[in-house]
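User: I'm curious whether this sequence folds into something compact or stays loose and floppy. Could you predict its structure so I can see for myself?
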Amino acid sequence: MKIRCALTILALALVSACAPKTPDPNLQIRAAVASTLAAIPTATVITPPTPYPTPTPFDLAGLFCEYQFCIGHPPEVAFFDVSAQQNPAAPSTYSQGILAAYNSNLFIQVMWQLAPGAKDSQFLLDLILDDQVDTRTGSLDAKLIHDMNVLYTPITAAATTLLPNGAAASWNCGDRVFAWKVYTPDTTSPQALFTNAIDRFTCNNK
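Assistant: Here's the prediction. I'll summarize afterward.
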């Protein structure tokens, strides 16, 4: 009888030892929290500041520099090469070229031409003015700006009814002659736009 009882107790102990155990919910929660925390990306390491060169004396927003000259323009428009657009095989060069910039409220054109020894820029002013659509409305104003003889005239424009006013100018720089023209919806903007353009104008000579 004692042997039979002992065997029964031993069998119960073995069965209870082999039965599957219910996982501890606390351990499951801790494991889930740990895996969630591990999945969170670590904060980006802040890199030390990079030394940059000292800024140029010009505000680069609204400054066109190419073909060995720079000229100011409103930052909301950008110049494109008209010569290259008309003929990709013959883009603008140092010797000659045409640029334009525009939006719904503004049109600007810049032209230049190699003219060594030229003292008068009026021939290029006459060229940038289109007899079909441009009419001079005031006297030709001559000024010395940055050691350059600058000619300036207000105009009216019939190219578009949205931009009926404007101005044109020309000047010599080195061995080239430059001309500039603008169309605007009002009569007050052209002078300010030209001042911004010519004040920031520089050119290099070959």
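Summary: The CA atoms of residues 67 and 94 lie 5 Å apart. The first strand starts at residue 63 and ends at 66.
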